[in-house]
Structure of RING-type E3 ubiquitin transferase:
Amino acid sequence: MSILTTVKEVLQASTQSANRGDVTEEMSNGAYWCDDCDERIRDVDVEGEGPPDCPTCGDEMRFERSQGSTGCAC
Ligand SMILES: [Zn+2]
């Protein structure tokens, strides 16, 4: 029975679990909403320019900035 082997396995496991891809949330300025359907699409998930159509009802979606990220003090 080797303690060294056990420590090595624990280190490898923690390295793998720490490698998560949640960085894209930081890049988002807001999201598009459809009030009727409660559909939400983040701006970073929208391809091209302009508001996308709601996948449920087909209406143009409304852009809403995420709160607190752009505090203009002028
Ligand atoms: Zn809709």
